[in-house]
Amino acid sequence: MLVTFKCRACPDVMMLENLAQYLVGIVGKRLGERGVIIHDELDVAIGKLEAAINVDKQERAEHEGHFHEGEDGHEHHEIPPGLAQRAYPFLDMLRAAKKENADIVWGL
């Protein structure tokens, strides 16, 4: 199922429900049928999401040395997108909403 986040400060952001639930959880909300991140909550939400992205980047960098691309006896495998790539549209929306003093809503 898709979840659409809306904000008057920027275009809508749509994502799969499991990713939406994960990202909304990071910023301290629950993904219910309807929800809102009010403009007063945006500083904290942005900080939490940026911190999670930084932790993910660090963990990925530490594990990067464990990938054996091109070595004999190791199959090729793709590295899945990190949190930064998956969260960018939502983080961009949070920042735009903060700049415009707007709320972000979903489930309308």
Automatic annotation (TrEMBL):
It comes from Paraburkholderia haematera. This is DUF1840 domain-containing protein. InterPro entries: DUF1840. Pfam families: DUF1840 (PF08895).
